[in-house]
Design brief:
single chain; 106 residues; mainly alpha; 5 helices; elongated; binds zinc ion
């Protein structure tokens, strides 16, 4: 008995590329994912930028325009909001201590 010539070649099944998405659709999905991701910015991200944000706010009151995401986060996250206001006060206090007292209108 000789069993020669039994080839087990499996032809790769190359079907099923009917579901490939056009580029615009992929781009759209990516953009959606991105905006979803920025909308729930984690507290750690916010904390990492708190001091920049507070300094900017004190300098020209443009912080909310500059980083609207942080502004939004403060609205939904009392922890970060509290932290931010504490930091704001701390910076103001430090500035006054340093004597660079820009007259702060109440
Ligand atoms: Zn937060």
């Amino acid at each position: 008995m000789n069993m020669k010539g039994q080839s087990n070649q499996q032809s790769a099944n190359a079907g099923g590329n009917a579901e490939e998405l056009p580029d615009e659709v992929v781009q759209g999905i990516l953009r959606l994912l991105e905006s979803a991701r920025v909308q729930d910015m984690p507290c750690s991200e916010v904390f990492a930028r708190l001091d920049q944000y507070a300094e900017r706010e004190l300098r020209d009151h443009e912080a909310a325009k500059w980083m609207p995401l942080l502004r939004e986060h403060f609205d939904i996250c009392p922890d970060c909001c509290e932290e931010y206001e504490a930091l704001l006060r701390a910076i103001e206090h430090a500035d006054r201590e340093r004597g660079s007292a820009a007259p702060a209108p109440e």
